[in-house]
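Worked problem 6 (solution included).
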Amino acid sequence: MPKLGATLTDITAAAESGAEFRIGLVFRQTFGALKNKFGTCFLLASISVLPMAAYLPTRSTQDIGVLFNPYYLTAVVLQMVLSRVAYAMIAYGVFQDLSKREFSIGESVNQGLRRFFPVVGTAILMVLAIYAGLVLVVIPGLMLVAMLSVGIPACMVERLGPIESLTRSSALTKGYRWKVFGILMILGIATIVGSAALGFMLRLLAGPTIIPWVPWVSLLVQVIMVAINGVAVAAMYSALRSAKEGIDIQSIASVFE
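Solution. The predicted structure is:
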């Protein structure tokens, strides 16, 4: 397995080459990978909503204070963790696609499961850190999202533990966090606008009959969001490695061989 840790030579080479972390490049890679493998990414992202899909049929339409329902809260927490597991599986596929290599859903699932426990640990620490930051002070909490955003692909590619993965993400995003934050904000706004537009069209076409299906439509939107964000996070990790260390996508993809 090639060693992907950054060396002084790597960093010097990257600086001399004038490599830069570019938002346009991240979006081109993101939507290029989605164009090629949207179905695969969508199926991988679907695992993130399984807890909520299991909860919805048991939900009573008369539920009061659903936010304090322990089953609902459990489903929400599991969904947040599983979305990061989906990111890990999607990351493998993105690195293969960007390096012009073939891959299957089975290979992506297998690679994700190999790193299941470190990824879950990284996801839990990430969620706790971000929510603590948001609760304490809004702006630092939002910047934590950018700082820790590439922890999952770092965990997958560099075979790091949870704390090391988040530390690595912090190091990679340093100097580029506003750009990373901007990418995440653009994707978030696009998701909100797309979700609102989809809801409006469905209500326009189906009228009141769509109301019982609204939670399921919401799950569909969440799957799409996880698929897009998972690809974007992997593309950001690749672009950051290239800009800061001169590591190309072929070298990143080769660690899975």
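Discussion: The chain has one domain: 8-57+64-254.
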